[in-house]
Amino acid sequence: MVRGKIEMKKIENATSRQVTFSKRRNGLLKKAYELSVLCDAQVSLIIFSQRGRLYEFSSSDMKKTIERYRKYTKDHETSNHDSEIYLQQLKQEASHMITKIDLLEFQKRKLLGQGIASCSLEDLQEIDSQLQKSLGKVRARKAQLFKEQVENLKAKEKQLLEENVKLHQKNVVDTWRGSNEHQEKYRVIDLNLDVQTDLFIGLPDRNC
């Protein structure tokens, strides 16, 4: 026979309530014992009936278990308290950061010329001073970058000039060598044309 699902509410009938209490109490004590044996766990169970009667089970000394529980809960509460303090500190820091960001945004709008209708003469003078300082820094940085670019261009120009001189010198040497070879060739030809011989065509002399 299938057991029906029991509705979780107080049993109105006193006899049925007592019977159910006895059965479930014994089952709970049995489960606590099995858990301590099977899993080598430190288990302590305290039950007070409706009439105030005490039922308990402990796998070890009940007082030591209770002391251990109190120490654990105390440490846990201390840890929770420290966590709450740390969380409050983070909230305060976040609030300060939001305030600083809002102030910086307000100053930024002023520097951009927004919302200055309500500014006093002193505020406007302070804004003008900040703008002058910022403009001076921007110009100084711009001049530095321009100077670096000019120096880089001069260095490249010098390198190109040196390379041009080397190429020119090499071209002159090659041209000189080619001219000398050409002149030597024609000199050899002229020498060959100027050679004189003692060749005589005719009868030889008798005296010879």
From TrEMBL:
UniProt domain K-box: residue ranges: 87-188
SMART domains recorded: MADS (SM00432)
InterPro entries: MADS-box/MEF2_TF, MEF2-like_N, TF_Kbox, TF_MADSbox, TF_MADSbox_sf
CDD domains from the UniProt entry: MADS_MEF2_like
Residues in MADS-box domain copies: 1-61
Pfam families, sorted: K-box, SRF-TF
Coiled-coil ranges per UniProt: 143-170
Main location as per UniProt: nucleus
Keyword line: Coiled coil, DNA-binding, Nucleus, Transcription, Transcription regulation
Annotated localization: Nucleus
Name of the featured protein: MADS-box protein AGL42
